[in-house]
Amino acid sequence: xxxxxxxNLSRRIRELSAEEYEATDVFVTFETxxxxxxxxxxxxxxxxxxxxxxxxxxxxxxxxxxxILLDVAESAEPSAVRxxxxxxxxxxxxxxxxxxxxxxxxxxxxxxYVVLWRNxxxxxxxxxxxxxxxxIFPLLTRAIVDYEVHADEGGRALSxxxxxxxxxxxxxxxxxxxxxxxSSTISDKNEDLIPRVYTIFFAELIxxxxxxxLDIVG
Length: 218
Prior knowledge:
Helices cover 61% and strands 0% of the residues. The chain is an all-alpha fold. The protein has helices spanning 2-18, 33-43, 47-52, 90-120, 126-145, 153-179, 193-214. Helix 4 (90-120) packs parallel to helix 6 (153-179), helix 5 (126-145) packs antiparallel against helix 6 and helix 6 (153-179) packs antiparallel against helix 7 (193-214).
């Protein structure tokens, strides 16, 4: 019955409240924006001072228990905080970041191999391969970033943006530039750099909107 569920939950709450927990983050709410800004300004100090627990220009009355420098920062919105990941150990965070970085580099190496291979064979569709991979990789990146642990959605979005930007930058510009002889950088033959860049840009203009309109992923 509903009463039995409430009784069991109340008992469970009392059991959990009796346990001791190590605080990892403390969220403070303010009545006014001015109060928040004043607190952030008064308690702001450098990361080195926090790590060394000395200096920083913070008086003792503003330190925790009169001696501990706190790392005070403006929090993300409550809806953006990843509550289950806040207390994750730094080793777990580092492991997830390592796995996602390795996977990103592997996909990047595979893309470079395909582009160089088809480019050396004189394949006229290299630009389509590049444009296609630039569309597919962001979809894969969302799964790759799931290996990472972030305290808020902003950190996850930043990691996603960095990986996508790196892939598209290298895949679109660096690989073609590196595979083109210096003597072919300013001429206008089909196999030279400028016509290739034009073809890649044109393929990007066509492929990305087309795939978006088809809504393959949903």
